[in-house]
C-alpha cells in the first residue's frame, strides 16, 4: 500500500516537472517561481495554489465520508459475542468495530477486526458464539490512534508501520470516528487528481 502511494507522489512530481519544462520551452525566460507569482496575481479563474495531499488531514477524510464517519453504529460491547460482532461487520460492510464497555458508549475499550476473528477464533478452533469480544479484542492501551488534525500521510505511515488497516480518531479523550486504509488511499488519490487538474488549468490559462 505504501508503494502505491509513493507511485502517486512520484507521478505527480514527474507531471509537474514536465509541465513546467513545457512552459520554459514556450518562453525560456520564464522561471517556475515567476510563473507561480504571476499566476497568483491573475484575476482569471484558473489559479496555481500551494495545495496538495501533503496538507490533507484526517478531518478532511471524515468530512468526505459524511455520516458514515461518525461511527454511531460501528461499535459493540466487550460482553457481545464475537459472532454478533462479525455479523454486524458483515451487515455494514466494514472490517472493524469499536469496542465499548457495557452501558458506556463513549468509553473506548478497544477494537475488534476481521483479523482478530481469523487469528483468534478460526485458526484456534474457538467458537465465535461462546467467545466474548472482550476476550479477543485489541485493548485500548494498545491502540494506535490519530486526531482530526493528523496529516493523512502520517496516518498512512502509522498504519503501514504497524500493519493495521483501521485507526480510531480521538478528540478531547473521546472517540469521534474511525478511518481505514481505504479511506486514506482514496483521499490521496482524489487530492492527487485535483492537483493535476490545477496544473492543467494553470497551463490552459494563456501563458
Automatic annotation (TrEMBL):
It comes from the Eukaryota. The keyword RNA-binding does not apply. Coiled coil: none annotated. SUPFAM superfamilies: CBS-domain pair. Keywords: CBS domain. Residues 62-128, 137-195 form the CBS domain. Pfam families: CBS (PF00571). PANTHER family: CBS DOMAIN-CONTAINING PROTEIN, CBS DOMAIN-CONTAINING PROTEIN CBSX3, MITOCHONDRIAL. This is CBS domain-containing protein CBSX3, mitochondrial. It comes from Raphanus sativus. The lineage of its organism: Eukaryota, Viridiplantae, Streptophyta, Embryophyta, Tracheophyta. The gene is LOC108818064.
Amino acid at each position: 500500500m505504501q508503494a502505491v502511494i509513493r507511485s502517486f507522489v512520484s507521478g505527480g512530481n514527474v507531471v509537474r516537472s514536465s509541465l513546467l519544462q513545457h512552459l520554459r520551452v514556450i518562453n525560456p525566460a520564464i522561471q517556475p517561481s515567476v510563473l507561480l507569482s504571476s499566476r497568483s496575481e491573475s484575476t482569471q479563474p484558473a489559479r496555481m495554489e500551494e495545495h496538495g495531499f501533503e496538507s490533507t488531514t484526517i478531518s478532511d477524510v471524515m468530512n468526505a465520508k459524511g455520516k458514515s464517519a461518525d461511527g454511531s453504529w460501528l461499535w459493540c460491547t466487550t460482553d457481545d459475542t464475537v459472532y454478533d460482532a462479525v455479523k454486524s461487520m458483515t451487515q455494514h460492510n466494514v472490517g472493524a468495530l469499536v469496542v465499548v464497555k457495557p452501558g458506556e458508549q463513549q468509553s473506548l475499550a478497544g477494537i475488534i477486526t476481521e483479523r482478530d476473528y481469523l487469528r483468534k477464533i478460526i485458526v484456534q478452533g474457538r467458537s465465535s458464539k461462546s467467545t466474548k469480544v472482550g476476550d479477543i479484542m485489541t485493548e485500548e492501551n494498545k491502540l494506535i490512534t490519530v486526531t482530526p488534525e493528523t496529516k493523512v500521510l502520517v496516518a498512512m505511515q502509522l498504519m503501514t508501520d504497524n500493519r493495521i488497516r483501521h485507526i480510531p480518531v480521538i478528540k478531547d479523550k473521546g472517540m469521534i470516528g474511525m478511518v481505514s486504509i481505504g479511506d486514506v488511499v482514496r483521499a490521496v488519490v482524489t487530492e492527487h487528481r485535483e492537483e493535476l487538474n490545477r496544473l492543467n488549468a494553470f497551463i490552459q490559462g494563456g501563458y
